[in-house]
Specification:
There is one protein chain. About 5% of the residues have low confidence. Helix content is about 10%, strand content about 45%. The protein starts with a helix and ends with a helix. The chain has a domain of about 170 residues: 8 Propeller (Methanol Dehydrogenase, Chain A). Strands 13, 14, 15, 18 and 19 form a five-stranded antiparallel β-sheet that branches. It has about 475 residues and is mainly beta.
């Protein structure tokens, strides 16, 4: 018996080696240089597509030129600006043009340059503003690099963080106003996050304009009691020691507070987030009412989550939503909070029935309907089309190995939009009329298309056909 087993084993090994040897002679040699250095096996992607407000067109930065394209045809509609136009006054060389952010009216662009990274996600830059109508370039501030610069809803102001303090620049008067003055490295942080929130809660921008542009809600971190961690920074002849606040398990975290600054009264109001200081505030978000701020409150064990509604005039709060779990509440749901324009309803995702699903609630805290159900997870809540009352999401309903795009109506009727079995992701236009779908599976590189909201494919952006042929070799 044992002899027969070893005879079979040797035969299998010899046959496998013969096949391998044959394949080696028939197929091309594959080297590490081919894989990692040449880029010949890298798929072509469609990066940097940003929807315009009309929902019919998008912008793309290509060859130092910012262009507007039609979703439907793919044809270029116009060029907004080219890099050679972006020359600061007194200079002869244009600024580096690699990323940008539009004002809401799409008349101005924020452009970060000379960017320095702080930690993995955080950075600071010298920002410039390009006025599209007047074709004029101006520097946001000459008083040091800025972080997280962001237009107000009507584009007349820009808020940013510098040296752990929050500032507002009035673009019409050029006046720069400092909102907070207690910011201090390794002690007080205003308008951005400490290392823990950046790394564990995945955000660094910690200030948010109200919908009417009259107020700014912002985080304040007091990390004075957090213990320091030391790193040796190499590079020059003599290394330097860098110390930053890093709480290990069970040690003191930053004490987090939420404030709202009123631009008209020049006053700052502290929001009531409870007496407990050993907790987390993983997100804050304005409702569609400019006087009501939603604050997510999480205990340190991360098994009890509450959504608070705060009156920003008084700071008073009430609990809108509470969820408890014996073990843990998944942090992927923090961004899945959508308030409706009617200021009556909101969507949120939860694993409270054992799988991650979408729930429709009202602003009185009442659960109205569970929109998705089943032994599968909603993996991403993409958005809500107010006009058609459709919720767009990605789920693993077909298989845990797959990701598919669906819509669901508010009555719970759902429709699958993606057609190819594998992994699908979608990026929608601002009006949800079109979306860019990226599909792949284990043997297919990204296949990127433009689709209508009903799932119908309009055109192919990238098919990676050349890569598929190359892989066959």
């Amino acid at each position: 018996m044992k002899r027969n087993f070893f005879t079979i084993l040797i035969s299998v090994v010899f046959f496998t080696f013969s096949l391998f040897s044959y394949s080696q002679t028939e197929q091309k040699e594959l080297t590490l240089k081919d894989i990692f250095k040449s880029g010949k096996f890298y798929p072509k992607m469609a990066y940097g597509i940003k929807s315009m407000a009309d929902g019919q067109s998008y912008t793309l930065l290509k060859n130092d030129s910012l262009n507007v394209y039609s979703y439907k045809s793919g044809k270029i509609i116009k060029t907004i600006v080219t890099a050679n136009r972006l020359i600061p006054e007194g200079d002869t060389v244009h600024i580096r043009f690699r990323s940008y952010k539009f004002s809401k009216d799409e008349q101005k662009i924020l452009i970060p340059t000379e960017t320095e990274f702080i930690y993995r996600h955080s950075s600071k830059s010298n920002y410039y503003i390009w006025d599209i109508q007047n074709e004029k370039l101006s520097q946001l501030s000459e008083n040091g690099k800025q972080r997280l610069a962001d237009f107000s809803p009507y584009g007349a102001m820009v808020a940013f963080v510098r040296d752990n303090n929050l500032f507002i620049k009035n673009l019409e008067t050029s006046n720069e106003e400092q909102i907070t003055k207690d910011g201090l490295f390794n002690h007080i942080i205003n308008g951005t996050t400490d290392w823990v929130y950046e790394e564990e809660f995945s955000f660094t921008k910690a200030f948010f304009w109200s919908p009417d542009g009259a107020k700014i809600a912002f985080y304040r971190f007091d990390e004075s009691n957090v213990k320091e961690y030391c790193l040796t920074m190499f590079g020059d002849i003599y290394p330097e020691e860098y110390k930053y606040k890093y709480p290990k398990a069970g040690e003191d975290n930053s004490v987090v507070e939420i404030f709202v600054y009123d631009l008209n009264s020049k006053s700052t109001e502290k929001m009531n987030i409870g007496e407990e200081i050993d907790q987390y505030i993983p997100r804050i978000k304005w409702t569609t009412d400019p006087n009501v701020l939603a604050i997510l409150r999480l205990n340190r064990l991360q098994n009890k989550l509450e959504i608070l509604l705060n009156n920003v005039e008084t700071g008073n709060s009430r609990v809108l939503y509470t969820e408890e779990n014996k073990y843990y509440i998944d942090d992927s749901n923090y961004d899945n909070l959508i308030f409706f324009d009617d200021n009556i309803h909101f969507l949120f995702t939860s694993e409270k029935d054992g799988f991650n699903h979408i729930y429709l609630n009202n602003m009185d805290g009442e659960l109205l309907r569970q929109l998705t159900k089943g032994n599968w997870d909603v993996t991403d809540l993409l958005g809500y089309d107010e006009k058609k009352q459709l919720v767009f999401y990605i789920s693993a309903e077909v298989s845990p190995l797959d990701r598919d795009l669906y819509t669901v109506r508010l009555d719970g009727y759902k429709t699958r939009l993606s057609q190819r079995q594998g992994t699908n992701s979608a990026s929608f236009s601002s009006t949800y009329k079109y979306y860019v779908n990226t599909y792949s599976n284990a043997n297919t590189p990204p296949y990127i298309t433009v689709n209508k909201a009903n799932g119908k494919q309009i055109r192919v952006l990238k098919d990676n056909a050349a890569l598929i042929e190359r892989m066959k070799e």
